[in-house]
Structure formats: C-alpha cells, structure tokens
Design brief:
single chain; alpha+beta; two-stranded antiparallel sheet; 35% helix; elongated
C-alpha cells in the first residue's frame, strides 16, 4: 500500500515545534504600563485600548478576594402590650368584663389576675434563624449562633425562676401582658427574628 504525505515538510516542522508559554504577568504589566502612559499623556487611542483589552481578556482571571465576614447586629428589645387581658365588651350581657373571668372592668383597662400564675398572660418564646440568608450576606454560622446565644441570655431568668428576664422587666414597666421582639441583621439583611410573651 502506498502512502502519501500531503503536508509539506516545512509546514510539518512548524506544527510540531514547541510553543513558548505565555507570560501572563508580563502581559498584565504591559497593559498597566500602557494605560498609565496613556493617562499621563491625557488621551487614549480607542483602537489601542480595544487591542489591549482583548489581550487582557486572554489572561487568566485574578483570584477573587476572600469575603470578610459581616457582623450581626441585634436591635434593642421592643416591648408592646398584648391585648389578651384587655377589658372586653360582652355583647350578650352588655357589660365590660375581663377575658376568662367575669370580673367587672372599664373600657381600655388591662385586667390583672392575681390568683393566676403570671396574671393570666400567655408565656412563650421563639427564635427563628435564617442560615441561608446569613451565608449570602457574608455572616458565618458561628456569628449567627453567637447572636442567638445573646438573645437567649436576655430571655433567661438569672438565677432560674427569678422572673427577671427582659420580658418581665418590660412587663413591670407596662403593667400588663407584654410581647418582646428582637431582630438581628447582617448588614441590611434580616437573619434573626425572636419574640417572647409574658
């Protein structure tokens, strides 16, 4: 069988010769030097800029700078009165009475239940953590956990059973059933919502 070489020897030698590696740092330095010289001269030739930008596009991209972790900021506790023990008008009997008890009261008055534990106010608390939002905003899970620990400290009695947590403190000021709300943000992104009732 006869074989034919269709590529001339001179072309074949050129195809097989080793390629010189591109020096990307030198290329980037060249681009920076030309841009600086153009800025100093006060004018930039558009065709030169297009040529240099195409060369720079071939260069390897610089590694991304590490994202510095954000800090989670907690709002001051916001206390509001709840209406669960607000005096209500009873349609059937046409009188103002305290909820859950047939005690006479006045419109707009908050009822007190001295015989009830916690004066009849609902008790409870909850904390919602938004891990994905914290990640996207640049806050770490450790920072999120530390912020939750701070909220838990505010919600806890010291020592246990002393009824001196933040909700009870605000309840003494407001004189009725109280709801506390605390929010945590990473930058401008909300990452924690917490509430407590007492």
């Amino acid at each position: 069988m006869v074989t034919y070489n269709t590529v001339p020897l001179s072309e074949d030698a050129r195809l097989n010769e080793p390629k010189a590696p591109q020096n990307r740092k030198a290329l980037i330095a060249l681009v920076a030097a030309v841009c600086f010289a153009s800025a100093c001269a006060g004018a930039v030739a558009p065709s030169a800029v297009r040529g240099l930008s195409s060369l720079a596009a071939d260069a390897a991209p610089a590694p991304a700078a590490p994202v510095s972790p954000g800090k989670i900021t907690l709002t001051d506790p916001v206390a509001t009165k709840t209406d669960e023990n607000l005096c209500k008008f009873q349609e059937f009997s046409k009188v103002w009475e305290c909820p859950r008890e047939h005690l006479s009261c006045k419109e707009g008055e908050y009822c007190q239940y001295p015989d009830y534990s916690n004066e009849g106010c609902f008790l409870g608390s909850g904390i919602s953590e938004m891990g994905r939002e914290a990640d996207e905003a640049g806050c770490s899970r450790q920072e999120l956990a530390a912020a939750v620990d701070k909220i838990n400290e505010l919600f806890a009695d010291h020592p246990y059973g002393a009824h001196n947590n933040i909700c009870y403190q605000k309840k003494k000021e407001l004189g009725t059933c109280t709801r506390i709300e605390i929010k945590g943000t990473c930058g401008t992104t909300e990452v924690i919502t917490a509430s407590m009732q007492c």
